[in-house]
Specification:
By secondary structure, this protein is α/β, with parallel strands linked by helices. Helices cover about 40% and strands about 10% of the residues. The chain is built from eleven helices and eight strands.
Length: about 350
């Protein structure tokens, strides 16, 4: 048997090692890496009859976890917030696990539209999809590729949904690049928790049936994190804000008068020179011609102040606020998140 998140995790590690071998820049694993998810197995182990093959695509999963746990996955109600690099991986893992294939549903939302720069790591999208909503395309692809799975796409702010709409979910998976959006979702999940009063002690205790677990994942370059939060039971997102580095904002006066690095030169061209050149006409940050124009002006600005490091790739990253992303890191972190979702749904 096999579990999709475990396969994805090991595949991500193997791809990472291939990257190291090709570039010769990074230290490879010494000897071998062992990783397991034995804590995700049902206890006690399912009977042999529960794990017997039934001739469908989920025989591999059934052989590991048994029919009862698989049925819980198939009936589950999931909310995936973000259909970017992590969101694509999550939807893949959930679909291959059998999630939402027998009365359940996966809701996915994302406010972004597909850009050309997304195509190198957000593998559910193709060139013809550029300009379309990420959530819509991701849902269409998954339902076409994995028959029987139900995915419902949303293209609206998470704040537009009422509290009662959120009550339907058994787990919320967060792949957001905004701290404020994470805080809002955390607050919503906490507000949904109801409390009971212990008649002996008089203490208020959360009703666990009203608690919707939050699985939070994020990556940047070769780094990433995975964590599970139970609102009003464990520490929530608000409790751990100090774990995030402070958001860096560059004063406009620095960009205009005393640039100190390549990014300042690029921002000068993008924020100050471009409006002078193009007026009120909004420029497409995905347009190669505009990127080249900003790059050339940034090079000129950098030459005036003897600042190295202005490249076309750096220019694209700055004007589009691209977070450094590695596909193999996304696969590893998303697989670990999907494994946590699996545990939540099956009570393992």
């Amino acid at each position: 048997g096999a579990l999709a998140p475990v396969s994805s995790f090991i595949g991500g590690v193997a791809a990472q090692e291939a990257l190291k071998a090709v570039t010769g820049k990074f230290t490879p694993l010494r000897q071998f890496l062992y990783w397991d998810a034995l804590e995700a197995l049902p206890a006690p182990p399912p009977a042999a009859a529960e794990c017997a093959p039934r001739g469908d695509r989920y025989d591999g999963t059934r052989a590991v976890i048994g029919e009862a746990a698989l049925a819980a996955l198939r009936r589950g109600r999931y909310f995936v917030v973000g259909a970017g690099a992590l969101g694509c991986e999550w939807l893949k893992c959930l679909a291959l696990l059998g999630a939402a294939t027998d009365g359940g549903v996966v809701h996915v939302t994302d406010m972004d539209q597909i850009e050309r720069s997304n195509l190198n790591r957000q593998f559910l999208f193709r060139k013809a999809d550029v300009g379309r909503p990420k959530s819509t395309v991701a849902a269409e692809f998954i339902m076409k590729r994995v028959s029987g799975v139900t995915v419902e796409a949303h293209f609206c702010p998470i704040q537009d949904k009422p509290a009662d709409w959120y009550r339907q979910f058994q787990v919320i998976v967060m792949g957001l690049d905004s701290i404020e959006a994470r805080r809002w979702l955390n607050a919503m999940a906490c507000s949904l928790v109801t409390f009971e009063v212990d008649m002996e002690t008089g203490q208020r205790k959360p009703d666990l049936t009203s608690v919707i677990p939050l699985v939070d994942g994020g990556t940047e370059g070769f780094s990433g994190h995975v964590r599970v939060m139970y609102p009003c039971v464990s520490g929530c997102f608000e409790c751990t804000l100090n774990l995030f580095p402070p958001q860096q904002a560059v004063p406009l006066c620095t960009i205009a008068e005393t640039p100190r690095n390549a990014a300042h030169c690029i921002l000068y061209a993008h924020l100050i020179e471009a409006p002078k050149q193009f007026g009120d006409e909004k420029q497409d940050k995905d347009d190669p011609a505009y990127q080249q124009w900003v790059f050339q002006r940034a090079e000129e600005r950098a030459a005036q102040f003897n600042i190295p490091g202005v490249t076309l790739m750096h220019t694209q990253g700055v004007i589009k606020n691209i977070i450094p992303a590695i596909a193999s890191t996304n696969a590893i972190v998303a697989a670990a998140c999907a494994n946590e979702v699996f545990k939540v749904l099956t009570n393992c």
